[in-house]
Design goal:
Layout lengths: L8 H9 L5 H14 L6 E4 L1 H17 L9 E5 L26 H8 L3 E6 L38 H8 L5 E6 L5 H7 L2 E4 L19 E6 L2 H11 L29 E5 L9 H16 L3 E5 L7 H16 L17 H12 L2 H14 L5 H23 L4 E5 L16 H5 L6 H6 L3 E8 L5 E8 L4 H15 L9
Parallel strand pairs: 2-3, 7-8, 7-9
Antiparallel strand pairs: 1-3, 4-6, 5-6, 5-10, 9-11, 10-11
Keywords: ATP-binding, Ligase, Nucleotide-binding, Protein biosynthesis, Transferase
Family: Belongs to the amidase family. GatA subfamily.
GO molecular function: ATP binding; glutaminyl-tRNA synthase (glutamine-hydrolyzing) activity; transferase activity
Length: 491
């Protein structure tokens, strides 16, 4: 029998239905892969007993012919999703050993559809970062390495554990979240597929909040089809999240293989950055050529406010984070550091519990929201946000169906190589992804090629609101043309 961990989710579904193997066998194969890959630090908690129990239940449902669409499929869960009875920390010391008594809506829908939980995945603390280096559990290793080098690279962030685990064949798919690029950037760094759906498509209930007007959940998977299958289970209206939208969830898988003939693809002029590596330029033109060969029409478009997106994001996101993170006070959850009075207890807990990047964001956020600076920073950033959204609306109003851009300005870099002296160096990684969150649009990252060092690179497609289907159709064209990429095992 082929190694069960190397199957795609769609192949595993077929194999389970044909009774070629059981979910318990599939789950055990992944549990043993996880054990052998601990050096990657992708999982922060392994839940083998729960996984086997869920697998047995899936097997009995499959035997009875009563299997859900993800029956028996082993998944990893980003540690930002509350999981009932399983420690949930957002990879922050401040949550300590917090064990939720409830389950996030997104994960409960995955379990409803029969999926199996292997454990919780590492991420940047409170999802703040682009390299998974701010986690209180330490950095995650990217299964990809530069040709001829032993240097461990970052998997991107903040969903670094999700991307690394999926790329290293430790789980068949993973949940992730994206506030400014945290699904798409790690997907691009690991040759996996990641989709951030439209804001409102997935419920945020039970997901640790970072910046509530930007946060969205989505899957990371090994193929476009697998991502479509996962999103179908994750998406949907939830009365417990008033920002989730009450429109039907389409069968995303049906979009795969649909003709893209006649679709208009926008190539935004402003994403051609000075000093962008030539290989990213080349990848972008190749991607455009593949879509053209499949019958799509390419048009140059302009998104004139692009250059303001990153600065505006780094005002809006910290502002919302400073407000969301006010709840971690040492009284209600997790860590508590004593003090002589309640104020000192708050101060000691927050100083001890939050890492450096989180403290920086809380300070920036508090500053831009403070009485004297609110108009100059926060209000102005919100106005810029409206202009960014309008750029996209103007483009779609001209008949553009989707926009093609690079996913990241570079391939993966080494642990500790970026942002040490200047955090802005790290923030620049999000240059192609934050616009999409600011506008609330869906965006998918698909592996498209490799750089000269042999590292994967991805392309991003941005769609109209709630038109994830077009992204799946176009994404699969790129996947077919580029092929799939698997890292050589060194762990
Ligand atoms: N890297 C970005 C940040 O640090 C985005 C993170 C995310 O999408 N969660 O804010």
């Amino acid at each position: 029998m082929t190694d069960l961990t190397s199957l795609t989710l769609a192949e595993a579904r077929k194999g389970l239905a044909a009774k070629n193997f059981t979910s318990l066998e599939l789950t055990d194969a992944h549990l043993s892969a996880i054990e052998k890959a601990r050096v990657l630090n992708a999982f922060v908690i392994e839940t083998p007993d729960q996984a086997r129990a869920m697998a047995r239940e899936a097997d009995s449902k499959i035997a009875k012919g009563d299997a859900g669409p993800l029956a028996g499929i082993p998944l990893g869960i980003k540690d930002l999703f509350a999981t009932r009875g399983v420690r949930t920390t957002a990879c922050s010391k401040i949550l300590g050993n917090f064990v939720p008594t409830y389950e996030s809506t997104v994960t409960s829908q995955l379990w409803r559809d029969g999926a199996v939980m292997l454990g919780k995945l590492n991420n940047d603390e409170f999802a703040m970062g682009s390299a998974n280096e701010t986690s209180c559990f330490g950095p995650v290793g990217n299964p990809w390495r530069r040709e001829g080098s032993n240097t461990t690279l970052v998997p991107g962030g903040s969903s670094g554990g999700s991307a690394s685990a999926v790329a290293a064949l430790l789980c068949m798919g993973a949940t992730a979240t994206d506030t400014g690029g945290s699904i798409r950037q790690p997907a691009a760094f690991t040759a996996t597929v990641g989709i951030k759906p439209t804001y409102g498509r997935c419920s945020r209930w039970g997901i640790v909040a970072f910046a509530s007007s930007l946060d969205q959940a989505g899957p990371i998977a090994r193929s476009v089809r697998d991502a479509a299958m996962l999103l179908r289970s994750m998406a949907g209206h939830d009365p417990k999240d008033t920002t989730s939208v009450d429109i039907p969830v389409p069968d995303y898988e049906a979009a795969i293989g649909k003709s893209v003939k006649g679709m208009k693809i926008g190539i935004p002029r402003e994403y051609r950055l000075d000093g962008m590596p030539a290989e990213i330029e080349k990848l972008w033109s190749e991607g455009a050529a593949w879509l053209k060969a499949a019958g799509a029409e390419l048009v140059e478009v302009s998104l004139p406010h692009t250059k303001y997106a990153l600065p505006a994001y780094y005002i809006v996101a910290p502002a919302e984070a400073s407000s969301n993170l006010a709840r971690y006070d040492g009284v209600r959850y997790g860590l508590r550091e004593q003090g002589k009075n309640i104020i000192e207890l708050y101060e000691n807990t927050r100083a001890e519990g939050f890492g450096a990047e989180v403290r920086r964001r809380v300070m920036i956020g508090t500053y831009v929201l403070s009485a004297g600076y609110y108009d100059a920073y926060y209000l102005r950033a919100q106005k810029v946000r409206t202009l960014i959204k309008k750029d996209f609306e103007d483009c779609f109003a001209k008949g553009v169906d989707a926009i093609l851009t690079p996913a990241t300005p570079s391939a993966a870099f080494g642990i500790g190589e970026k942002g040490g002296a200047d955090p802005v160096e790290m923030y620049l990684n999000d240059i192609f992804t934050v616009t999409v969150n600011m506008a609330g649009l869906p965006g998918i990252a698909v592996p498209a090629g490799k750089d000269v060092q042999g590292l994967p690179l991805g392309l991003q497609l941005i769609g109209r609101p709630f038109d994830e289907e077009t992204l799946f159709s176009l994404g699969e064209v790129i996947e077919q043309a580029a092929g799939r990429f698997t890292p050589a095992r060194w762990w």
